[in-house]
Amino acid sequence: MSELRFVRLGFGEQAVEYTEAWQKQREVHADRFEDRVPDTCLLLEHPPVYTAGRRTADNERPLDGTPVIDVDRGGKITWHGPGQLVGYPIQKLPRPVDVVAHVRRLEDALIRTAADFGVETSRVEGRSGVWVLGDPVEQRQALGGLSLDFDPRLQDEEFDPRLNGPEYAPSNAGQRREDRKLAAIGIRVAKGVTMHGFALNVNPDNTWFDRIVPCGIRDAGVTSLSNELGREITIEEVLPVVEKHLRDILENADLAPREIERPQASAPAAPAAPAVPAVPA
User: Fold this and answer.
1) CA 13 to CA 68: how far, in whole Å?
2) What is the mean pLDDT of residues 76-102?
3) Is it the case that residue 88 has pLDDT exceeding 80?
4) Is 249 annotated as ligand-binding?
5) Do the annotations mark residue 197 as ligand-binding?
6) pTM of the full predicted structure?
7) What is the pLDDT of residue 272?
8) 198 is in an annotated binding site
9) Where is this region: Disordered (predicted)?
10) In this structure, is residue 21 part of a structural domain?
11) Tens of pLDDT, residues 95-134
């Protein structure tokens, strides 16, 4: 069992600028690597900001030239801002680090948090984060007089919801009964210590996501605890619940290094058969 401490950096009017929090992460990361501090989770809100992971494509960024901070985490572009609880677990893990296992632990904590508020969430195969699952495509109602038979999202991989009216905006995914992301996860591991982490949508203005292709995903959208429940949920309500589940999962995890499959040694070649002299016809 490893101790996990929480540091609440700032919320509301004390929300922490992204670059300031990023520098704080670096400092705690260095201290954790040197074992000067225990595993630490920074919790905070940011003022509105777009951040882009290493795999962000140009056509996923804001079309209006809104500034974006490029960061060293995995994943693609996302938004942070008021009403979103951001957590940066800085944890030392055995090397080689099993990154997928770390992401799954964060997902588990957030799935449990959502369940405590009465929101059923899940994972989506091939996509990180925590999701509210939508209806199957054939059961969704067309919006704005459009028929799903002609829905460009089903045929065109380059379809951009930002160019096609509000009915396709990521913030309206619930209205369309599509899959919608409640919490995003993007991490980096350096020297066996994690950085970055998760962003849980509690009660943000989700229309901020409509300027981008959130996480590079064009066929789904975003949601929040407040949207799903139809009532206001606050960061203050969610903070102790998130801490409880993160502590339970991260402190009690059976940490193990990533298993690396070694190529099997090939069997020795059979001795060549003696040459058979050609027989004249």
Assistant:
1) 22
2) 95
3) yes
4) no
5) yes
6) 0.83
7) 53
8) yes
9) 262-281
10) yes
11) 999 999 999 999 999 999 999 999 999 999 888 899 999 8
Q: Tell me the pLDDT tens digit for each residue of 140-198.
A: 555 454 444 445 545 555 556 555 566 678 888 887 788 999 999 999 999 999 999 99
CATH code: domain of residue 246:
3.30.930.10
Do the annotations mark residue 19 as ligand-binding?
no
Is 66 contained in some domain? yes
Give the 3-state secondary structure of the chain. Answer: CCCEEEEEEECHHHCCCHHHHHHHHHHHHHHHHCCCCCEEEEEECCCCEEEECCCCCHHHCCCCCCCEEECCCCCCEEEECCCEEEEEEECECCCCCCHHHHHHHHHHHHHHHHHHCCCCCEEECCEEEEEECCCCHHHCCCCCCCCHHHCHHHCCCCCCHHHCCHHHCHHHHHHHCCCEEEEEEEEEEECCEEEEEEEEECCCCHHHHHHCCHHHCCCCEECCHHHHHCCCCCHHHHHHHHHHHHHHHHHCCCCCCCCCCCCCCCCCCCCCCCCCCCCCC
* Across 216-231, average pLDDT: 88
**For residues 77-106, average pLDDT:** 96
- Active site (annotated) includes residue 215: yes
Write down the catalytic residue from 86, 106, 193, 215.
Answer: 215
The answer to whether 218 and 160 have CB atoms below 8 angstroms apart is yes
245 domain-assigned: yes
Residue 63 lies in a domain: yes
Q: Which domain holds residue 71?
A: 4-250
